[in-house]
Structures are given as C-alpha cells and as structure tokens.
Amino acid sequence: MAAEDYGAKDLSVLEGLDAVRKRPGMYIGTTDSQGLMHCLWEIIDNSVDEALAGFCDDIVVTLHTDGSITVADNGRGIPVDKEPKTGLSGVEVVLTKLHAGAKFGNSSYNAVGGLHGVGSSVVNALSSRLDVEVDRGGKTYHMAFHQGHPGVYEDADAANPSPDSPFKRSRKNSPTELEVIGKVSPKTTGTRIRYWADPEIFNKTAQFSYEQLVDRVRQTSFLVPGLKITVVDESIAETGDMAVDEMREVDAPSVVESTDGQDFSTPVAHVPSAQPRTHARIEEFLHTGGVKDFVDFLSTGEPVSDIWRIQGEGTYEEETQAVGANGELHAQMVKRTCGVDIALRWVNGYDTVMRSFVNIIETPGGGMHVDGLMNSITKQVRKTVEANARKLKVNLKDSNTRIERDDIMAGLVAVVTVRIAEPQFQGQTKDVLGTAQVKPIVTRMSDKQFGEMISGSKRGYKDQSGRVLEKIVGEMHARIQSRKAKEVTRRKNALESASMPAKLSDCQPGNDDVAELFIVEGDSALGTAKAARNAGFQALLPIRGKILNVQKASITQMLSNKECAAIIQVVGAGSGQSFDIEQSRYHKIIMMTDADVDGAHIRILLLTLFYRYMRPLIEHGYVYAAVPPLHRIALAGSHKGEYIYTYSDDELAGKLADLEAKRITYNDDIQRYKGLGEMDADQLADTTMDPRTRMLRRIRMEDAEQASKIFDLLMGDDVPPRKAFIVDNADDFDRSKIDT
C-alpha cells in the first residue's frame, strides 16, 4: 500500500467485547490451560468478593459432564434494575462492559480480589455460551449470551442447555430484557453463572485441572473463615446413598476439612435407599480458624512452637482518584483501614514456608506486608537474644554471632494477610504489594504482639519462646560453623586434609569431579575397605554404630553429635539453608553398611541427616547406597576358582537351582557374610567398591513434600501413625523393594 493511500478508512475499531476475543492474551495471559483456569478464578473471585463484603457464606462450583462450569453463591445477586447512564440492566452492564462494576465507587466493596472490573465480561466474551440467573426481590431472573452478545437460546431440552442450540441475538445497542423464570422467597438472593469455554479461543491442548481448582478453593476457604465452598464434579461417579438430583435437594454427605488438613466424611443427612446409588464427587471446604488453620495445614515436621497469631487494624491516608456524580475523575484524600491477620509457627528443619496475601490475592513476591513483619521479627528476636545471651550461650563480644534473617526463617511457617481497599501492586502480575502505608502498620502491630510472645512476657509463651530462640541460635551457630568449614575444608592441596577429622582416610587431591566418600559402618569394615579402595579418588569415613536421629533432635543436638558434625565437615558444603552443592568435596556419597537390619537402620538415619540438613545432595543425585552381597558360591570342577555372589535368600535358592539344572558343581560350604568386615579386600572391591564391578543404588527424591511426610511418619516422635502405617501396609509388603 502506498503511503498516500493510507487513511482513516484503513483503521478498524473493535467495539465492546470484540477486542477481548481478538487479543485474549491481554486479559487472561494465555489461551492454554492457564488461561482456561484463569477464567474460572475470575468468576469464583466475584463470589468470594461478596463473602469478603459480608454478604455471602456459601459458594458451589459444579463441573458438568458437557465441560461447562457453574458457579453459584448466596450473595446479594447482581443488580437487575436499570443502570442510569446506559439504560441497560445491571446484569448486562456487568457481563458486557469492560471496567464496569461496584468496585470503583468505594461504597460496596472495601477489600476485594478483583479490581479491574473486567473479570465477568472477559469470561463472557471468551465463552461460546454463558447463562446467568439472579435471585433478587422474590424473583429469579435469567439472561443468556453467545460469545459475549446477549440474546435468546432455543434449547430443545431446557434441563440440558447447549451452546449449539439455535441463538437469536438481541438488536445491537438495544437493551435486553431480563427474563423472569421463577419465584423465590424475598429473603433468597444469589447469583448463578454457567459458562462453556469457547473452543475457538482456547488451544486444543488446554485442559482443566481439578487439582488446581481444589487447591485454590482450599486456600480461599482458609482466607475467608466461615465461607463454605463446595466442589461438585459430575464426571466422577462415587457410590453412596443418593443420586445427584437427590443430593441437590438436601444437605448431602460431604467431605469437610478439619483444622489439621485431614479429610473426613461427615454425613449431614441421608435419604433412605435400599440399594447404593451413584452420585457425583463432592468436596466441601469450610474453615473457621482462618490463617491459623492454614498454617497448621502447611506445617510439616515436628512443631517447635504453637501457632502464634498477630491481629489488628490500623488506618492511613491515601490520595486516590474518585468518580464524581457526572462520571469524571478527581483526586481526593481518603482514610483507609488496613486489617492485619498473621499466623506463624516454627517447626523442626530448615525449610521456610511463607504465604502472603492481599485480600484473597496471593503475593508470591511478598511486598510491604511481608517486609513489615520480617523487619519486626528480626528486631525483636535480636533484642531478646541479647537480653538472654548468657542463657542461650551467645558471645555478644564476637561480632560474628549476630542473628540474621536466614536464621529466623529456617523452619518458619507463616501466612501473612492484609485487607485493604484498592491495593497497589508492583507490576501487572500482582506478585508484590506496593502500598507503602501497609509496612509501618504491620511493623508496629508485630513489634507489640510478637515482641510479647518471643520475650515470654505474654502468659503461656515462656517455654515456647525458649524453644524458638534455641532453634534460631542453633541455626546461627550452624551458619557460622558452615562458613568456617567452607574456609578450611575446601581441598586445594594435601595440607588441607590435616583439618579434617582424624578418622577420615581422604583420597588424593585433584580428583574433585570424581571423588567418592564411603561412609563405612565400623572399624573392622574400615580396615578391609582401606585395602580395597582406590586411594586416588575414594575416601573413607567410619562411623560408630547408629548416629543421632535428627528428625527428633534439635539443630543444637545435631551439631553436638560427633558423627553428624564429622559428616557435615567432611562433605564441606555446609548445612541447612546455607548448604552450597558447588562446595561439596565429593560427587558420590556412598553409604556402605552391612546387609542386615542394623545396616538398614543406619542407612535410614544417614538419609534423615542428608534430607534434613544437606538435601541438595539427594536432589542432585549425589547420595548412593552400596549393595554388598549376602552369600558367595564357590564353583567347583571345571569352573573352580569362579565365584557367584547373591544378595538375598531367594536369589541364592534360585541360583543354586539354576546351577543344578546346568549340572555345574559347587562347594556345599556356601559362605554367608554377616558383615562387611568378613570379606577380604579383593571380595569387597569386586562386589562393593570397584566402579567396574560394583552395584550401587542411587537415592532419588521425586516429590519433596511427599518425602517430608514420609520422614515425619517413619522417623518422628508420633508413634501411633507409624504403627498404623506398618499395620495397613503389611499385606502389601514387597521384599524386593528394600535394599537388604
């Protein structure tokens, strides 16, 4: 096109929701699975905003078999009267006009999750069909839309609406009358939106995630105490006392989450039935404890303290743009209220779980509310440690013994929430809260309330604060010790080995990329291993018996244990949060223990140490278990001088049967090893240490959360769950899956 031919006629104007369909990524990010879920969050969040405003306490999300989704609430219902400026009903304004809603006038909503006023209208634009029903004033109103445009569907079966039904679009720029389809009690209010995501918009690979829905719903139920959210999945059949239709008419058996995060069935009402019937999967989420329940749900490991709560309100002034009577914007100073609700506890271990929210919006990047809390906690902990330095064995004259934020964060589980009107965020993704006035409010509130708890001046907190301070000081000592260990243990020349434990038989320097550390059970095995190893790249560290179970011990107890401290020092990469995998002196850490029950116990104790304090070793595949044999078969006859090793009684029986079938003779005196020390050097090298002939088992961790739960179950202090686990799984025991 020539430049002189370019004019206004070449410009195109997209009106209403057409712009959303043209550029959906601007509104929902992507048109894949993430965008599909985003649409659902927009509709759910509108209902949650009604709950935050105090007008809704029940939300039901239904996943239909045809792929559509219904979100129903018992809030006030979308307004059905005429909006003066457009002459359209409130329902049509909300669902067809961008940046329209009650969240701009500072009157109906004081703390909301959605601020832009585009959620419902965007979902409408990106749906092949959307139906809305509103209960208000004793009537039920209905309106339908096709790709964002209002009109009327002619469904062959009213009970089974379809986006493929014939559709008559309303005349352009003409208001669509709301259809009255029923009567309700004057006190009954609420909104129900059912929509079908448009396949013309979303990728074929876009998939709905039930797990994401449940996680988000559970999270919301924690953040809005007293709000019941029910998820009904009609595509999953379960056996029970009621059919789906019957369940909708009465309170159904539901799955309720307890405060400790465990699910349990609670029969609320039953319809008598001679035969079990199939009904939809239903999960119900209701928490009255708020963020306290949330912290309890997020906590793994042995608790060091109870859940501490910081709550209150503060006010601040802010300049904002207000909407005038004629729709114009003007600046004005307004007084805001900031509600603060924080729950936190410390657990054994060094992982930090910090979740922060503004209203119901998660802020993964933190922001002013998190900064205010951490500044206060750090200040109050340092103050209390200094006041109790002698009791905590802290040398204040040493400039290195200063509590750092990382020491406090180790093992901390916290949920930080604030509720404010019109929050400001850094960036479009709402990851970081930027409202600066929130920080001093949270700091002042935390200074007073947390200060009383950590100092023990608040009744009932003295013992807890003592345990927390001991843990934090232990983390500080571990960090300092780790730094010193890095300075003196990084092997650059042979002289550095002198700083290692005397019992370490180190390998030659210069082979860092292939260096192996064998942790050997007992001195007798050490003597054989010294003769069997390749001293060029294989190091040996003996341990005496069973090391400390660090799952049950504090970090101070762990550091005081000679065996644990020696292992951390020899590996040379630190411990806890300061662990640096790049500083590890060995690329293989091999647990070489006897092939018996005691050997298996020592291995699991070592694994507990690695998992709790040197987890990157497992994550990077540095940890292995040696697999020593149990038996040695000496062949006879023409095969004299040859040996076969077996690793279990079943394998021995099978191998002997195989030899007899092949008519290969062997000595009847089959050697059974009771321990590594019974092998001579050649046997130990061939079976366990020589990379050319040995067999190792690499320890892997595919799911960190599941691994943490397993360690808590098998190695923690709580005996009844461990006993129940053993009993429940006894019948499924598979000996081939264990390394004994």
From TrEMBL:
Keywords, sorted A to Z: ATP-binding, DNA-binding, Isomerase, Magnesium, Metal-binding, Nucleotide-binding, Topoisomerase
Pfam families with a match to the protein in the record: DNA_gyraseB, DNA_gyraseB_C, HATPase_c, Toprim
Region (Disordered): 153-176
Highest rank taxon of the organism: Bacteria
Catalytic activity: ATP-dependent breakage, passage and rejoining of double-stranded DNA
Keyword check for Kinase: no
Chain ranges of the Toprim domain: 515-629
Cofactor names: Mg(2+)
InterPro entries, alphabetized: DNA_gyrase_B_C (IPR002288), HATPase_C_sf (IPR036890), HATPase_dom (IPR003594), Ribosomal_Su5_D2-typ_SF (IPR020568), Ribsml_uS5_D2-typ_fold_subgr (IPR014721), Topo_IIA (IPR001241), Topo_IIA-like_dom_sf (IPR013760), Topo_IIA_B (IPR000565)
Top EC class for this record: isomerase
EC code(s) of this entry: 5.6.2.2
Transmembrane residue ranges: none
Gene3D superfamilies: 3.30.230.10, 3.40.50.670, Histidine kinase-like ATPase, C-terminal domain
PROSITE patterns xrefs: TOPOISOMERASE_II, TOPRIM
NCBIfam families associated with the record: PRK05644.1
Family (UniProt): Belongs to the type II topoisomerase GyrB family.
Name by which UniProt lists this protein: DNA topoisomerase (ATP-hydrolyzing)
Organism in which the protein naturally occurs: Bifidobacterium panos
